[in-house]
Amino acid sequence: MRLLATYLHQNDLCNAKYLWKRIPPDVKAANEELTRVWTVGQCMWQRNWPAVHAALNVEWSEDIKDDMAALKDNVRERVMRLISKAYSSLNLTTMATMSGMSLDEARRAAIDRGWHVDDTIVQPRKQVDEEQYNQSDKVCLTEEQLQKLTQFVSFLEN
Description:
By secondary structure, this protein is mainly alpha-helical. Helix content is 72%, strand content 4%. It contains nine helices and three strands. Strands 1-3-2 form a three-stranded antiparallel sheet. Helix 2 (13-22) runs antiparallel to helix 4 (32-45) and helix 5 (49-56) runs antiparallel to helix 6. The termini are far apart.
């Protein structure tokens, strides 16, 4: 059960699906919580974010409670990044539904991210991924180095 939750947390849906298929049917039938974890996985596979949050908002046993809380935070962050990439503006209710938050939580989350929020309209800003930012720094350094090398070769030729 924890391995399945870990696969979901890592967004490794293919391995989660194959793990589910390898679990014997009698184990699936005997463990209701395992079935609930897989329900979360199915909703993630279908990219049905409101259903993912609904499936995560249940009482989990102590064995898996922390894993599922981490998964919930991970999914919420992933949805917020998707919203920032996909929308120039959207309804606050839509954002709250997609992210599994109340309207007040969604409003606070948008403001914390520096997004513009009117009464019911949110205007997300595109987030700069750290990897992308670091790669652009490397490109600038490479261009800088190339310019210096060109100046050096030009100096040697003259």
